[in-house]
Amino acid sequence: MGAKPSAFTNVGTMAVPVIALAVLAVTWGRSLPGVVVAAVALCLAGAVLAAVHHAEVVAHRVGEPFGSLVLAVAVTVIEVALIVTLMADGGDKSATLARDTVFAAVMITCNGIVGLALLVGAKRKGVANFNTEGTVAALATVATLATLSLVLPTFTTSKPGPEFTGPQLIFAAVVSLALYGLFVAMQTVRHRDYFLPVTRDGEVMDAETHATPPSAREAWRSLAFLLIALISVVGNAKGVSPTIESGVKSAGLPHAVVGVIIALLVLLPETLAALRSARRDRVQISLNLAHGSAIASIGLTIPAIAIASIWLSGPLELGLGPTHMVLLALTVMVSSLTVVPGRATVLQGGVHLVLFSSFVFLAISP
C-alpha cells in the first residue's frame, strides 16, 4: 500500500466527508447560487479523494477481490437509491432515467476505466497482465445482463415502445439479481484466485506485500467514512445537477448529456482507485472495479426499479436505441478480444478510450 498516511492526512480524509455531508444537508432540494455551487463542487471533489483513501484501507484489510467489491457495491447501492429518488419526482424525463444511467455506467466502466487502466498499466510495463479466467467471466456477465435488460425491451412485442410488461420486468429483475449473486459467489468464494493480480508469468501475486494491514478497528472506521463520502459524492452530484442541466440547455446540448456528466461524477472514486491500482502494476484490480461496477449497476438497478415500479407512475423505458446498441455490441466484441489473451498493450487501452469518446461525442451530437 506504500507509506503509512500522516496524522494530518487521516484527519483530513475523515473531516472532508463529514463537511461534505453537512453541506449536502444544508443545500439539499434548494436552488443554489453560483458561489454555493462552486463550494458544493469543491466538497464533492474532496469527498471523492477521501472515498478512494478509505476504500484502499478497507481493501488492504479484507484483501482482494473483497476490497474492489466493497467499493463497487457501495457506489452502486447509493447510485440506485439516487435513481429511484429522481424517478419518484416524476416528469417525462424520468421514463428513460434508469436506462440512460445504467448504460452510461456500462460505457464509462467497460471503456473509460478499462481503457485508462490498460493505458497506464501497459505504459509502465510495456504490457498489462491480468487473469483471463476471472476477467472473461466478468465480461460475459456484463454482456448477458446488458443484453437482457437494455436490448431485449426494444424487441419485445407484448407492450408498445421499448418497455417490458410487468411479468417481463419481474423476470429481468430476478435473473439480474441471480446472476449478480452467482458472480459475487464466484469472485469471493469458489474462484477467488481468478480475480487476484498476476505476474508476467501468470502467477498469482500476494494480496498485499508493501505494508502491514490496518487493524479491524481502522478498517471499520474507514468503511463508515467510505459510506459517508459516497453518500456525499452522489448527493452533491445531484445538488449541482440543476446547474449542469441549465448549462447543458444553454449550450443547446441534448438532455442525455446531463446523465453522462452525473455518471462521471458518481464513478470518480472507482476511476481514481482503478488508476492507482494500474500504476502499481495491479491491472486485475482495476478490471475488477470496472467490470464489477458494471455488473452491480445492472444487477442491482433493475431489481430496484422493478420493486419501485409498484408505486411509481408513468412509463419505464429500458430499451436502447440503434446507436447505443451498436456501441454496446462493439464494446462487447472489442472487450472480448482484449481480455482473452490475458495481456494488453497501449493499443487496446487506446481502442477502449476511443469507444468511450465515441459514446460521449454521440451523447453530445446524436
From TrEMBL:
Coiled coil: none annotated. It is found in: Membrane. InterPro entries: Alkaline_pH_Ca-Antiporter, NaCa_Exmemb. It comes from the Bacteria. The chain crosses the membrane at residues 7-28, 34-54, 66-87, 102-122, 134-156, 168-186, 223-241, 253-275, 287-312, 318-339, 346-364. Pfam families: Na_Ca_ex. Keywords: Membrane, Transmembrane, Transmembrane helix. Its main location: membrane. PANTHER family: SODIUM-POTASSIUM/PROTON ANTIPORTER CHAA (PTHR37958), SODIUM-POTASSIUM_PROTON ANTIPORTER CHAA (PTHR37958:SF1). This is Ionic transporter y4hA. The lineage of its organism: Bacteria, Bacillati, Actinomycetota, Actinomycetes, Kitasatosporales.
